[in-house]
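Example record for the data management plan.
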Amino acid sequence: MFFQQLINGITLGSIYALFALGYTMVYGILLMINFAHSEIFMVGAYIGFWALTFLPLSIQNVVPLHLSLVFVSSIVGAGLLAVLVERIAYRRLYGASRLTPLISAIGVSIFLQNIMQVGVSAQSQPYPYPQSSDIMHFDFFGIQVNSLQISIFLLAIGAMIALQLFVNRTKLGKAMRATAQNHTVSQLMGINVNLIITMTFLIGGALGGLAGVLNGMYYGSIKFNMGFFPGLKAFTAAVVGGIGNIKGAMIGGFLLGIIEAMSVGYISSAYKDVILFLVLIFVLIFRPTGIMGEAVTEKI
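Corresponding structural encoding:
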């Protein structure tokens, strides 16, 4: 029972960790909570749905190529949508109080939800892949693991490793870390801060889109408001891990996924959300900076 729930939790945590990275990256650069990120996640799932449904039959029959195009479509589409949201809804508000972009983010979130509800469908859409016949099941000493769970975990880990290498080993990643430290000094050193902000939204949105597709495949359906509760949980993961810290978002995502799975297995599915948000409350009380966060002294 324990190991089975652990496997389920790691799978769920992989999705939460990818999702949480978008929140933590934007906060790290702008000190802003992008609540519209939950709708980027939702739109990414729909882009994957459309790619699975409408790509030519000749491509659909070649499963590796088909899935590659689905993931690429979702990553690119969600990333570009995130950039568009930043340009339209946030860019003119960076000099305003922190409350102003937060209200704008909530407005964008409601707008995107309603656009998808009215323009696409208010009903749940079954995800066309994978079918039960496409999933291979493995049994290790009584522990059930399927190929979809393995794929979700490997894709999530691969994306996280790629992000870590990008941030730590590339010139653009170094510029992102510098911008997170101080915008003004970064500009004086020749860094195009607006470009860095755009790249942050692009990468965060792309990871959110990938998480949306994986979530649709895992649960087998998508809906216009599907980003709300996963968005709250991903945000909780980012806070628990230490918001603004990339490694913290990963750890927080996996931790919350495991806690949720254990809550379902050992207590009740009715209390899983209560337990998750109790964890958030306790973390904020006893370690407000999160697991990997560091207290920052503001000099006046």
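Summary line stored alongside the record: The first helix runs from residue 2 to 30.
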